[in-house]
Fold this protein.
Amino acid sequence: MEFETVARAILANIETVIDGKPKAAEAALVVFLAEGHLLIEDVPGVGKTVLAKALGRSVSCSVRRIQFTPDLLPSDITGVSVYNQVEREFEFKPGAVFANIVIGDEINRASPKTQSALLEAMEERQVTVDGTTYVLASPFTVVATQNPFEMEGTYALPEAQRDRFMARISMGYPDAAAELAMVRGRDAENPFDGLEPVASIEDVQAMIATARAVHVSPPVERYAVDIAQATRVDPDLRLGASPRATLQLLRAAKARAAVQGRDFVLPDDVDALVPVVLPHRLIPMRGVSSVEDVVDRIVAETPVPAGAVQPS
């Protein structure tokens, strides 16, 4: 199947259960095809978990859900070695992280020790238990939801954990028309009942390969680097974007270009993704109320490349 055809089918499938949130659906798909991880942060009840489940249901691949709670153990995520009395040896029992799409529900309700169990998996696509390394499936994406840190019973995600998420999005409240459609449609039936996969694992792997091959011109690469560099010297920021952030920004831009039907990245792709790729990685100086405003200013002040961006 063609890239655009499959991408439109996945987005349409997601939007059957998420009313009025096309940008959130596209962000989830872009992160998935860019082989990144997505953090969905918002207040309870606005559809964070529904979006994660809809993405998982739209693709014919393995999906596991982890409900993060204060008593969740790292071994519940990664797996554990159990002694087999019949064979008289230890055997590995894989944890919930062994899937193509891992849905981490309310990730910041678990302790920092348990959250850190995902660090190796998210960065290196592998898990090490009792000195043995196990490679995870490909593709591998973590779609995590969290409530705002200020809410009761939550722990702040450490900087290393946040930096591993390619993008952070907020669902926001639906508008009146979308909420009315939801009220009328959800009372009679569960929208997930008729949700069937519209793409195979082979389709997804082919789409990921296509996204990787999207052309990024040197001027656009420089543009992304200039934005990241500016966050590291801005007086309003205590911690700027990491080199990983720059890599993931360009990787996401390539996936977005492919979803938009192009085989090259535009500066507009970078501009569209900066607000979801950078802010959650940055730490503001005391007295700065909005990291997002700082990022918007940096983008506005960074010269847009005027050179050719299409492949020759």
